[in-house]
């Protein structure tokens, strides 16, 4: 009751005439922060902050267990002389970097992966704010599971399979038959048999090309299809007759499997009008 009387009198005073740190103690600065000692990873502290009374800020310092990490939960409750006044807090790490700021509604803050030291600033935010607070700290240590490396797990060899006895073949497999003898060579040609010479054939022009001052004509007969040889003779026929065309004697220059190429000194018009060529053996 005595504390609230002091707070009420301070609030009723003119805030503009009272410096915010007039009545503050060493804990009004971060260097004089009051330690919060954890017992079974929990702790509670109480205090009063009042802007009109010149004790606006209370600094607290909490040191977590050495070498441990976890979640630090901070919860603050407060009461004020009259409605509308507030008390807030924020948290800084050991490098004076803001870590989190409590919500004005929930008045809680949670720090994940917390380790080392943290400084908590409890303060009256506005010129007319004042109140009595209670701050609760709870540290939940991070549980580390033992490391597991599959390469370090001993794996026993599987049991050996029992030996399978050999089974005798009740019926002996006969050997494969010998390969058949090669066929006899063909008989030599009979010298008494007279092979008739190849006959002349008449073929059509397939393609007309120019080679120098002559034409190269491709004919539709070759070595495999008609037995044509390079020593054969080629003669252009006149029209649809079997008569030779004047100047139509051609030279065989190339023979393939299916075509024969001849060279002749005729004009393309003459070849178009006389498209038949007689190929004669030598």
Properties at a glance:
single chain, 282 residues, mainly beta, Jelly Rolls, Elongation Factor Tu (Ef-tu), domain 3, five-stranded mixed sheet, 3 helices, disordered N terminus
Indicate the proportion of strand residues.
35-45%
Biggest sheet features = 6 strands, antiparallel, barrel
- What is the H-and-E element order? HEEEEEEEEEEEHEEEHE
Oligomer status = single chain
Radius of gyration: 58 Å
CATH architecture of the domain at 26-141: Sandwich
How far apart the termini lie comes to 144 Å
The overall strand count is 15
- Fold-level CATH name of the domain at 26-141: Jelly Rolls
Helix content: under 10%
Which CATH first-tier class of the domain at 26-141 would you pick? Mainly Beta
Q: Structural class, please?
A: mainly beta
Average of the residue pLDDT scores: 86
Shape: elongated
Unreliably modeled segments? 1-15
Within the largest sheet, what's the order of strands? 10-11-14-13-12-15
Number of helical elements: 3
């Amino acid at each position: 009751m005595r504390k609230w009387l002091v707070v009420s009198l301070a609030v009723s005073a003119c805030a503009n005439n009272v410096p915010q740190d007039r009545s503050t103690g060493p804990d009004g600065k971060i260097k004089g922060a009051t330690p919060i000692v954890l017992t079974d990873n929990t702790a509670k502290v109480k205090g009063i902050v009042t802007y009109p009374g010149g004790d606006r800020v209370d600094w607290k310092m909490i040191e977590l267990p050495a070498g441990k990490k976890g979640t630090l939960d901070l919860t603050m409750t407060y009461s004020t002389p009259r409605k509308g006044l507030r008390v807030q807090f924020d948290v800084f790490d050991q490098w004076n970097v803001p870590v989190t700021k409590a919500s004005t509604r929930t008045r809680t803050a949670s720090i994940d992966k917390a380790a080392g030291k943290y400084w908590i600033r409890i303060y009256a935010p506005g010129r007319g704010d004042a109140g009595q607070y209670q701050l609760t700290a709870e540290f939940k240590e991070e549980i580390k599971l033992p490391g597991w490396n599959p390469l370090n797990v001993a794996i026993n060899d599987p049991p050996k399979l029992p030996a399978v006895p050999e089974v005798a073949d009740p019926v002996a497999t006969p050997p494969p038959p010998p390969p058949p003898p090669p066929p006899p060579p063909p008989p030599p040609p009979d010298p008494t048999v007279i092979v008739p010479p190849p006959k002349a054939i008449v073929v059509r022009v397939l393609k007309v090309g120019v080679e120098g001052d002559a034409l190269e004509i491709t004919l539709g007969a070759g070595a495999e299809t008609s037995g044509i040889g390079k020593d054969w003779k080629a003669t252009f026929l006149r029209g649809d007759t079997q008569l030779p065309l004047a100047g139509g004697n051609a030279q065989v220059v190339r023979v393939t499997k299916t075509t024969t190429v001849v060279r002749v000194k005729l004009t393309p018009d003459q070849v178009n009008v006389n498209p038949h060529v007689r190929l004669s053996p030598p």
